[in-house]
Design brief:
It is built from 44 helices and 26 strands. It is of the alpha+beta class. It is found in: Cytoplasm, Cytosol.
Length: 1100
């Protein structure tokens, strides 16, 4: 065990210890009387002494000391009761510490570092052994340190903490890494040097495990253009998993606006725990491996043996139990796995205590025997409880006899229907696959292709007889071999449903598709318009989609899915995929296959930014560098392959291969997932290696690949020429190049690149996702800045800083709440200018940090009026352009524009003529005419500045409040008193002008009392007047109209002022002109906002 470092002086010590290992910094010693050389007088004396001492005084027989170079002082840092235990500590020191110590110049620095590291390890071991929930006191202490050191808002939830080293250049700083819901934080304090680091998860570009000469294993974090390395973790893999989960959670919440309503442990950002994150990661891995619905969570895991009847041996693996499924995977994850829906279980035999075994009986006269289950009775009861069945009365009854007595009277066709997940209540519009309708198989035809097709079917029938058929079929290496050779046309739909997991979705949601069709047909949305546009572009050469039957089925499936998942709606390429699905699956089956593809197998592919496809392209580039080194040496820039391969991933090669060949690729995809597409992509590049290397430019390389795809054939396809066709994207005539059979190409892909594991692909996906999303965000930022820069006078760097502040404030509104307005009103179909917006509360916080004046009172009212003025479409949200335009006026605007801005603040809602209005009424899923949007935007840029004559007049109450706002602006100004007097003179002059004008029109009007009373309210900014006109009393939300009430002003006589009158009067006061024309130190305001943004949130 690690020990708290204690000083030991060895110079005059007894020779009680023998040194067994040593180096410049550490010594491993054995106490005499133990191990080899235990004899002798000294050994006997030591052994006797240790035996006589009680347990609290005994000395461990092995220890490790840290020696300070050129000194007689040693520090005890570890001890052990056995040679094996102390050797593990020694190996850890050699692997993690030795390389690091060489970078220090001072002996004192080395000792301080070692002591700090050992203390961190001791605390880490204590935390791991007790657990956060079991030892709340330690966690409470860590939480207090976290709050003290980083000054983050109290709502910020600390998830966990670890002892580690943070590298500043070549020197490590030993300290603590704190992982909270929204931030990664590190703190270190050694020898008077403090290191503090706070990084938002949404700012991270890369998060990966790395190793180099100095660092044996470390975690690399790239954020804001800076690299950060953390090393010497006691549990590095656990730490990295939590960091990965928190980064992914932040990305989904903040960028994708996901609310996690279906994941209770993650739905509230104030209640995130380490255990909840680990459970979520485990559930995701469980569902992905077994292709289960998103509602399923891993409940229990048992280690056991499964009897494999076709191989006649027991295979070791794990039973994974969820609420609705019993799954088994062999230890290597590839040899054998099976999924048993609880709806298919018809009995559980009484457990066999001698072998700790139980037998699960399923439909189709089959049984699965699990043995050596540690808690077999608990498992049996759990299965019975989920299935609602009782124990079998006869344990001695043979499995075969049980099969014969169960379901013996059920019709065979009903059994088959249950296997593929069909229900009698299902009301699919079309009950036949389009290939069955447009190309029925001729059973009398015995040409060579049909004979080979029959042989394939026979191979699969043999497989079914050995491995089972339907949802509880064993999936093994033999299954994959059959897939690689090609699936028979008659079985394709059934096997697609099975391997994708869509069979389970459909079985558990009977009638769901029919309801969606009834609800969605006839609706008009942006998605339905796009669907109608693309219907006749989907496999247009296939007879099925030259008729109303195929087109109508395609329309129903796509429209129903867009209605089901408005977040995705409809995306190009979905029509191509769905048309192929309809060829081999019934309409309802095609719908559930589309659900499986979009929501489970290709996550984030079909949305506005196609993030999933871009991530897989990044993975593809990484694999090219790993496996095709010859190609990477010739083509250093692999971005070309990203642009070329996009359609490969989006359409599963359907758009580049002839349809009869592409379906073989789809077969492999449904069995192996994206791994099959990546393998095939590598095989295509490897096959064309020579041509690509010799190509002179990208255009020539594209031509080489297109010609190759045109010459890929399927020699075993039984489809007639009327059905076979060229690839969707390439209708050129076949060239004279050699033909390549799709089966041979797929086989080569598996042989050369099939060794990659699905777990490795998922890890690469996670590693590249952060970088892809941040790259897209950076592109979005450049687009926004390019547009906004045309309307404001800020420099490029200032605009960049403002964007960073605005974006962070947007995220702050989502950090600690589940009901943020920007989350509730998020619409991914909006243009990039609208993606980041602020509600009133967040706008007030940021505006208060950036506004150029120091308001002494009435801040809330001022911010609310400004928010109302800037919220041009009255949706309760302010976008970046609106925010920048307001600041640009206050920072760089002319005196006239600044006064006009203040004047318009006090106008009631509805009377200000909006220069820009981008209020598009959404129909269904945000139906926005983007072309009209952009055209209107361009017109507004060119529009002339608003004339001051267009502004409406302000009445008594508004003028009073306007004057008080001017008074509030001058607080703390060096010329504060002169400014007050100037405003008083202006208001007095305006009131006298109004009185003269009124007398000329109505000589008999008694205006003197009214004018004098109003002037009394204005001079000195009387408290009673302010209290009577405070807007908080009349509204609470930014969308509520402001009603100014001047109760102390007589209302029988109405008077008002035009903006020209106020402007002319103010121009007569030089002190006021100087105040409004005084330049603003913009860099200072931006620096102040950067340093105070989080504190402003903390002090709310």
């Amino acid at each position: 065990m690690w020990l708290k470092p204690e000083e030991i002086l060895l110079k005059n010590a007894f020779k009680l210890w023998v040194t067994e290992k040593g180096n410049d910094y550490f010594v491993l010693q054995r106490r005499r009387g133990y191990g080899e050389g235990a004899g002798g007088l000294t050994g006997l004396l030591v052994g006797t002494l240790d035996t006589m001492l009680d347990s609290t005084s005994k000395v461990a027989p092995f220890r490790i000391l840290h020696q300070t170079p050129d000194s007689q002082v040693y520090w005890s840092i570890a001890c052990g009761g056995t040679k094996e235990e102390i050797s593990q500590h020694w190996e850890w020191l050699e692997k993690n510490i030795m390389r690091t110590l060489s970078v220090f110049d001072s002996s004192d620095d080395i000792t301080s570092f070692v002591q700090g590291k050992i203390r961190g390890l001791i605390a880490e071991e204590g935390k791991v052994s007790c657990g956060q929930e079991d030892d709340p006191e330690k966690f409470r202490e860590a939480l207090l340190r976290f709050e003290k050191w980083f000054d983050l808002p109290q709502k910020e939830k600390l998830v966990t903490y670890y002892s580690c080293s943070y590298w500043r250049g070549r020197v490590p700083c030993q300290g603590w890494l704190y992982l909270s819901t929204n931030f990664l934080s590190f703190y270190s304090y050694l020898l008077g040097s403090e290191v503090k680091l706070v990084i938002s998860w949404n700012e991270i570009w890369r998060l990966e495990k790395t190793s180099n000469v100095i660092l044996a294993e470390s975690i690399h974090v790239l954020a804001n253009g800076e690299d950060h390395f953390f090393s010497m973790f006691l549990h590095l893999n656990e730490t990295f998993l939590i960091m990965e989960q928190l980064a992914d959670y932040s990305i989904k919440r903040l960028f994708d606006k996901e609310t996690f309503q279906e994941v209770p442990s993650l739905s509230d950002p104030l209640q995130i725990t380490k255990r909840g994150l680990e459970m979520h990661a485990r559930n995701e891995q469980f569902r992905a491996f077994f292709r289960l619905p998103k509602e399923e969570n891993l409940m229990e895991v048992y280690e056991s043996f499964l009897w494999v009847p076709f191989s006649h041996f027991n295979t070791l693996g794990k039973i994974c139990l969820s609420e609705s499924y019993l799954c088994f995977a062999s230890q290597d994850g590839s040899q054998c796995h099976v999924i048993i829906p609880m709806r298919e279980v018809i009995g559980v035999e009484k457990p066999d205590r001698s072998s700790r075994a139980l037998t699960v009986c399923v439909r189709g006269k089959r049984a699965l025997r699990f043995s050596e289950v540690r808690d077999f009775e608990r498992l049996a009861n759990a299965i019975r409880r989920r299935c609602g069945i009782t124990a079998s009365p006869q344990h001695s009854a043979s499995t075969e006899g049980l099969f014969l007595s169960t379901n013996a009277n059920q019709p065979s066709n009903e059994e088959v229907a249950l296997m593929v997940g069909q229900k009698d209540s299902s009301k699919a519009v079309s009950t036949e696959a389009l290939m069955t309708v447009f190309h029925p198989q001729d059973t009398e035809n015995m040409d060579p292709k049909m004979l080979k097709e029959k042989m394939k079917e026979q191979s699969w029938n043999i497989h079914f007889s050995e491995y089972g058929r339907g949802t509880s079929m064993f999936c093994t290496k033999k299954t994959r071999d059959l897939i690689v050779r090609g699936v028979p046309e008659a079985l394709r739909g059934e096997l697609w449903m099975l391997f994708s997991g869509a069979v389970n979705d459909m079985a558990t949601n009977p009638g769901y598709y029919s309801e969606l069709v009834d609800q969605s047909l006839g609706t008009s949305t942006l998605a339905t318009d796009e669907i109608e546009r693309d219907l006749h572009r989907s496999l247009p050469e296939h007879p099925a989609f030259q008729s109303d039957t195929g087109i109508s089925a395609l329309r129903r499936v796509l429209t129903a899915y867009a209605y089901r998942n408005p977040k995705i709606g409809y995306c190009q390429a979905m029509n191509i995929l769905t048309s192929v699905l309809l060829l081999y699956a019934k309409e309802e089956e095609a719908f559930w296959l589309l659900v499986a593809i979009c929501e489970r197998m290709l996550p984030d592919y079909f949305n506005r930014r196609i993030i999933g496809a871009l991530v897989d392209q990044a993975v593809f580039e990484e694999l090219i560098r790993m496996h095709l080194t010859q190609l990477t040496e010739h083509m250093t820039d692999l971005s070309f392959f990203s642009s070329v391969s996009l359609s490969w991933f989006l359409t599963l090669f359907i758009s580049v291969l002839p349809i009869e060949s592409a379906v073989n690729v789809v077969d492999c995809f449904f069995y192996d997932g994206i791994k099959a597409i990546l393998q095939l992509g590598l095989a295509v590049l490897d096959y064309n290696m020579e041509g690509l290397i010799s190509s002179n430019d990208d255009a020539e390389a594209v031509t080489i690949l297109n010609k190759f795809f045109d010459n890929v054939t399927n020699k075993d396809s039984p489809l007639p020429q009327t059905v076979q066709q060229n690839s969707v994207g390439n209708n050129n005539k076949a060239s004279s190049l050699l033909k390549v059979d799709i089966s041979d190409l797929i086989k080569e892909a598996y042989e050369k690149f099939g060794d990659m594991k699905s777990e490795e692909v998922e890890s690469m996906r996670k590693r590249n996702k952060l970088y892809v999303i941040q790259t897209l965000e950076d592109t979005t930022k450049q687009n926004v800045l390019r547009v906004v820069s045309q309307e404001v006078k800020f420099s490029a760097s200032q605009l960049d800083d403002l964007y960073a502040l605005f974006k962070r404030q947007h995220f702050l509104s989502c950090y600690w709440t589940m009901n943020s307005p920007v989350l509730l009103h998020h619409d991914p179909s909006l243009a990039y200018l609208e993606q980041y917006q602020l509600g009133f509360e967040q706008f007030s916080l940021l505006f208060s940090l950036l506004e150029p004046w120091s308001l002494c009172s009435g801040k809330d009212a001022f911010f609310l009026w400004a928010f109302r003025l800037l919220d041009e479409n009255q949706d309760g949200l302010i976008n970046f352009r609106e925010f920048c335009c307001a600041l640009d006026i206050l920072y760089s605007g002319t005196l006239t524009n600044k006064l006009k801005f203040l004047f318009k603040l006090h106008q009631p809602p509805g009377k200000i003529t909006k220069k820009r209005s981008f209020c598009f009424t959404p129909t269904g899923r945000g139906k926005v005419d983007l072309q009209a949007y952009l055209k209107q935007w361009q017109d507004e840029i060119l529009k002339k500045e608003e004339s001051i004559k267009d502004l409406p007049r302000i009445n008594q109450a508004q003028f009073i409040q306007f004057s008080k706002t001017l008074y509030n602006l001058f607080h703390g100004d060096p010329e504060e008193e002169s400014l007050y007097h100037a405003v008083a003179r202006v208001t007095s002059l305006l009131l006298r002008m109004e009185e003269v004008g009124r007398r000329l029109q109505e000589p008999a009007s008694p205006l003197k009392s009214t004018t004098s009373h109003t002037q009394a309210l204005l001079e000195g900014c009387l408290p009673d007047g302010e209290a009577s006109s405070t807007p908080e009393s009349s509204f609470n939300t930014p969308n509520t109209p402001i009603t100014l009430v001047a109760s102390s002003v007589p209302q029988e006589i109405e008077w008002s002022f035009a903006f020209e009158q106020i402007l002319a009067s103010l121009l007569n006061e030089p002190v006021l002109v100087r105040f409004f024309e005084r330049p603003v130190d913009i860099p200072a305001r931006l620096d102040h906002a950067k340093g105070s943004q989080l504190k402003a949130k903390t002090n709310m």
